[in-house]
Each structure stands twice: as structure tokens, then as C-alpha cells.
Predict the structure.
Amino acid sequence: MEVGWYMKLVDLRVTEFLAELARGSPSPGGGSASALAGALAAALVAMVADLTLGKERYKDVEGLKGVSTKAVCLKTKMMCLVDEDSQAFDALLAALRLPQGSAEAKGKRDAEIQQATKMAAEVPLELARRSVEVLKLAEVVVRKGNVNAISDGGVAALLGEAAFRGGVYNVKINLSSLTDETYKKAVVQELGALEEQMAILTNRVTQVVDQRIRT
Amino acid sequence: MEVGWYMKLVDLRVTEFLAELARGSPSPGGGSASALAGALAAALVAMVADLTLGKERYKDVEGLKGVSTKAVCLKTKMMCLVDEDSQAFDALLAALRLPQGSAEAKGKRDAEIQQATKMAAEVPLELARRSVEVLKLAEVVVRKGNVNAISDGGVAALLGEAAFRGGVYNVKINLSSLTDETYKKAVVQELGALEEQMAILTNRVTQVVDQRIRT
């Protein structure tokens, strides 16, 4: 199975995607896997919201319809990041393969690498941002949602957090080879703010889930 | 897209799997999503091992061939758990729908529910066990593997940990409705031991990855 411009990773069967990931080629890699984890998290949030809406017992719960819609949109956005991450990485590899025979060629290559590396940092940064949104929705469903689906909401939070941290790894690894210090500083600052939010959200969700899952 | 005995979840396209997960039906749910996260983790370990093997710079590194083989097997095992979790849950729902008109029917229903709940606990317990194995392999690849793939090894560990904790949620939720105290005690004990191992492994892997990913 060849994956290229004509074939999206997310159009592969799950078995094929896993085989493609396991192959000893650099892409798809951890960035795409993290994005898929984020999409799984968003899908689970949508599921719990839908398992609550319309149930007599939960008829007075408000705001879950909005959660379901937002979660489905986030699922789609993160699904796109699965392929975008892989494409950004391939573009970076292509830039690295540019000729560097003359000073001019070398200059052009360096510029292309910097440009491609920025793009390769932007995709996981976007994943990190979206993962924080998923966690916010996960908190709503574990607090207000159908208690029979509490473990599903809990797993949504776990996968959203893993997607976030995977995204952060991938941003950082790309930042390390960038020379634009202004850009780096801005990204590091944003990452710090996102990490703070994520820590608060995961703590809160874990507390609720642990309280409701007792043996 | 109807998923049933004739159609495995892992044979769905990634997009279809996500849509199936997001639907407001109780299965597939967090258990299957956790198992898929585990399979993604195992696939990434295999990828990093293969990106190391055969590279001149890493020709003296030993034991990675074994890691690659083991990781691919774990990927397959966890992929099976995606469908098994969903099937175990469906069997439990079927038991809950059994008639309870007479005392005899009620007794039969209770027994079936207990049996199905045990099975629904066994699948995520197996996932938790396998996730610990994935983390052990992830530790090898982040320590000895191709440093260019450090973030991929890091993501493998994150997803393996999320799969583990998702499995634990699903074991616990099922244990809470079991009456066989001997079985429950044994499982709680095993979970405790696995949680201890997992905490040590994730700490160690995170340290190595954080050290190697610097901005």
C-alpha cells in the first residue's frame, strides 16, 4: 500500500495504518499517531455527550448538545492533522535533500529547511491547542454526562493528554533546529501557557473520574 | 457502515472507525480506543527499532532486532483487543437484556451477567499487561535507538501509558459490579503490581526523552 498525494493516511484501514506506522520509514511517525490519539479522544467525548442527550435521567443537563457538535468538529480537525503532520515531515526531508554545491544553493537549501521546519512545528502546535479544547469538553462530559459512560470520558481525557504531550514533543524537536529566535520565543511561551492549562484540566478530570470509578 | 460479526472494527478505514466511535452507541467505546492507542504505541516502537537497525552509526547496538519483532507481535495482539473489547461489551449488554420474569430466569440472567462482566474485565486487563510490555520496549528504543526518532519513541511511551490507564479504568468499572470476591481480589492485586511497574517505566522513559528533546 503506497501512501502519497492521492491516498490519505486516514483513508487507510486501521490495520493498514498501523502497518504503515510500524514500517521503518520516518513518516508517518509519532506526530501522526499523536494526532490520531487526539481524534480518538474527541470522538469519545462526542459519544458520551450523545449517550447523555435525550436520556430521561439527564433531561435537565444543559450544554451537552454544544459539546457534541464541538467534539465532532475537533475530531475532524485532528484527523486532518494526521496527514498534515506526515506531509510537513516529508517536505522537511525534501528540503534536507536539496543540493548544497554552491554558496547560493546552500543558502537556498538553508532557507527551505528553516521554512519546512517551521511548518513541521506548526502542525503539532495546532494539535496541542486542539487537545486542550478536547480536555475542556472531556471535563464537561465526565461531570455532567451519563455516568454509565464515565470510563469513556476518562479515556477521552487520557488520550487527549497523550495527544497533547506528543504534540509538545514534536514542536520542541523542531524548534531545536530553528534559527528564528523571535518565533521560537513566541512558541515556547505559548507552549508554556498550554501546558499550564492542560495540567489543571487533567488534574480536575482525573479527580472526577477516579471518584466515580470505584471497585 | 454496519459493524458486526462479519466486519471487524480494525478493518474499517480510520475515518470510519472514528465515526463509529463517535456515534452515541455504547460500543465501540473507551476500551477499544485504549486498545488502539496501545497498538499505535507498539507500532511506533517497531518503527524506531527499524530506523535504528542497519544504520552504520548504530551497528554496535544489540537487541533491537528482538525489540522490533516483539513490538510487531504486541501491535497485533492489541489490535485484536480493539474488537474483543467491543464484543465483550456487546455480550454484557445481551446478558442484561435477558428475561427476568421467574426466579429461575432471574438466576440464569444474574449468572450470565457475572460471566459476561468477568470477560469484559479480562480484555482491558490483558491490555494493561501488554501495555507494560510496550513500555519496556519503548525504554529500550529511547535509550539505544536512533536519536532522530526520539520523539517517536517518546510518543510510543505516552500512548502506551494512556492505553494502560484506559485499560485500568475499564477493568475497575467492570470489577465494581462483580460478586466473586476471590476473583476481584486477585485482579486488584495484579493491577496494583502492574501500576507500580508502569509508574517506574514511564518515569524512566520520560526522563530520557526530556533529556534528549531540548529546545
